[in-house]
Structure formats: structure tokens, C-alpha cells
Amino acid sequence: MCLGRNCPAMKARYFWPTLVGVYCLDFVTKRLAETRLLPEHVPHPIIGELVRFTLAYNKDAAMGLSLGGYSRAGFAITAAVILVVLGVLYHRTAESDRFSALALAMVAAGALGNLTDRLMSSRGVVDFIDVGIGSARFYTFNVADSAVTCGALLLAILSLRGSKQGGA
């Protein structure tokens, strides 16, 4: 049994539970949103007007990025390619690098969650988290989007920290 920080299975112990957990959380919350937040585009206050749940479907990508009539196929292919790249990065990650494994799992789970929506329905990705003040609203998003953002930020921080250590 391996218990130390340099355990050969360390990255797997962080990657796989995170990937499965975030993916399942995303899937379940989206299905709940589809059944409990009807009708579409009607806000349900959670924390006053600051945080609302509002069911919306997004055929495009984050922040309105669109490929027109090719959005569904284009973004599905893009997500599949990203998942392959993340798999390669995971494979190249040191066994003891649990934070990189965690970050890669978050990005992969988010990409897989939104890919699942694109493959399941032509309506697009289910979004429901609506944050803002009054009419100044941020884009409506979901758990997968949050995971991608947090994972990417963690990877950026780890990369900056690594480049500072390597350059010292």
C-alpha cells in the first residue's frame, strides 16, 4: 500500500474521482434544471437578484461564440479534440502532481458534460446559473462551465508557479 506524496497512483486518486464527481454533478443539475425551472427564461431567485436559476439552452459556445449552423457539430468536435489533448496532458503529468491532475480532471469533466448535452439534444447545452445585479447580468452558465473555468485557472497558476521556480 502506498501512502506517500510520491505514490505512483497519486494523480489517478485525484483525477478520476474529480472527473466522475464533477461530470455527475453537472449532469444531475442540468436534468433538474430542465424539469424544475420551467418555463424557459423565467428567473428563479436564489440569492435575491444576485444569483438566480434561469433555464436556457445554448447552441453556441461561451460568451456567444458561434459557428452558425455548424455550431453543434463544430463545438462537439472541438470538445472531443480537447478531451484527447487533456488525456495526453494527463498521461504526461508526473504521478505525484496531484494539483495538475485535479485541474485537468475539472476541465475534462466540464468539456465532457457540455459535449454530452450537445450529443443528447439539438437544443444545445443546458445553462441555468444566472449571476448579476439588476439588468447587468453575466452569461448564464452551468456546473461544467464553472469546472472548466476553475480548472483552467488552476492550470494557469500552476504553470506560472512552475515557470517562476524554473527561472529562479
Description:
The protein has one domain. The radius of gyration is 18 Å and the shape is globular. By secondary structure, the protein is an alpha+beta fold. It has four helices and four strands, in the order αββααββα. It has a four-stranded antiparallel β-sheet. It has helices at 10-36, 71-92, 98-120, 143-167, and strands spanning 44-47, 51-58, 125-133, 136-137.
Key terms:
single chain; 168 residues; 4 strands; globular; alpha+beta; 4 helices; four-stranded antiparallel sheet
Radius of gyration: 18 Å
Give the ordered list of helices and strands: HEEHHEEH
Low-confidence stretches: none
Instruction: Specify the helix fraction band.
Output: 55-70%
Shape from CA axes?
globular
Residue fraction in strands: 5-15%
Strand order across the biggest sheet? 1-2-3-4
Mean pLDDT: 92
The computed structural class is: alpha+beta
* End-to-end separation: 36 Å
Counting structural domains, the number is: 1
Q: Biggest sheet, in brief?
A: 4 strands, antiparallel
Classify the oligomer. Answer: single chain
Number of strands: 4
Tally the helices. Answer: 4
What topology does this entry show?
Blueprint: H1 10-36, E1 44-47, E2 51-58, H2 71-92, H3 98-120, E3 125-133, E4 136-137, H4 143-167
Antiparallel strand pairs: 1-2, 2-3, 3-4
Helix pairs in contact: 1-3, 2-3, 3-4
